Amino acid sequence: xxxxxxxxxxxxxxxxxxxxxxxxxxxxxxxxxxxxxxxxxxxxxxxxxxxxxxxxxxxxxxxxxxxxxxxxxxxxxxxxxxxxxxxxxxxxxxxxxxxxxxxxxxxxxxxxxxxxxxxxxxxxxxxxxxxxxxxxxxxxxxxxxxxxxxxxxxxxxxxxxxxxxxxxxxxxxxxxxxxxxxxxxxxxxxxxxxxxxxxxxxxxxxxxxxxxxxxxxxxxxxxxxxxxxxxxxxxxxxxxxxxxxxxxxxxxxxxxxxxxxxxxxxxxxxxxxxxxxxxxxxxxxxxxxxxxxxxxxxxxxxxxxxxxxxxxxxxxxxxxxxxxxxxxxx
Length: 330
Hints:
By secondary structure, the chain is of the alpha/beta class.
């Protein structure tokens, strides 16, 4: 049974958390807003992917510069910030950058453990690094996580997340999936999750490999079922893990430079046209990338036949490269 002090603390947490859905509705005047399914959170459609903040994944910025980058994204209207316990310094950077704006953002992290008894400890570590006493959304991580688990194991982790939700330590729960959409579909059909984050881009690239046609089909079934159930749906890998954008000129040398610059915008518009998607999480390594992505999502433009032709041409050339041929075989 909760003591009076514990009860008051949880009540304050709940009231503070409720402020997020109200404040984000009015904070961004340029980025389009969509409601994250049955969570009811009305958020700018562009979210910040915190994996890019990890130095061990090649981020060249200093710690201070990365804090400033997150803050810059916030000041430009981004309100959804995604991270995970295994993203290096990401949680600490987000915590430092957003600690005085906590009630104005949707803060999301993930648990990687496959052991139910380790969930609470992992979440407590995340809370400490994020400098907060509650989360807006807590996810079962895709990998390591769901990929390494059976459905039965995943639901045991889910049960621990439910306890944390009941205690108001997190407002909503969900899971992420890079591939293995057969498992994701089963979890969606349980109706026991508030939202899901799925790999979804023009080029069907997951965490380390390309998706097989059957997995692409299952992903579409996931999107359809999640939308039918009113779940929040977040797209990740919108730029296909950097195949479009960061690595494009290296992978397809000789491709027209001006057209290469147009690729990310075309890929973003491709995902945005799907109204089953409520929000796009994109890793942004610089203020310039933040500005460019905000410009794309804020423009009143549709996915065009020119966008499709550009993406198709680049993808065809990409698939002809030795590197990608090897990746698709593995």
